[in-house]
């Protein structure tokens, strides 16, 4: 899944600024400040090379042309305000995977499971119970 070139360069060339800016991009604006602060702490405690290599791996890992071969029930959850992995990417997966179920959770960003845990857990629980 591609990572924006600007993000890769920011992590590589100015990690401190990236750590300051990333929480506001990863979480919906309405998400609790504590979630953003914890995320920032996590980034700051992660070595720059580790963060860069992680994003680089994400950038080169692209199996878009193979997802249509998935033949098991698949749950796809996205946040409506996710600007890191846009909801349209989840919609693409939903269209490509035969037996998929898409949920876009309003008011959540990239870390939907932390931002809207009750809604996220209910969706996962319902999906598992209906298998």
Keywords:
131 residues, mainly alpha, Rossmann fold, two-stranded parallel sheet, 7 helices, 2 strands
What report would you give on this structure?
Helices cover 56% and strands 9% of the residues. The chain folds into two domains: 5-60, no CATH class; 67-129, Rossmann fold, CATH 3.40.50. It has 131 residues and is mostly helical. Strands 1-2 form a two-stranded parallel sheet. The radius of gyration is 16 Å and the shape is globular. It has helices spanning 5-13, 15-26, 33-44, 48-60, 87-96, 112-115, 117-129; strands at residues 74-79, 100-105. The longest helix has 13 residues, at 48-60.
Domain count: the total is 2
Choose one word for the global shape: globular
| Low-pLDDT ranges | none
Q: Give, in order, the helices and strands.
A: HHHHEHEHH
Q: Tell me, what is the CATH class of the largest domain?
A: Alpha Beta
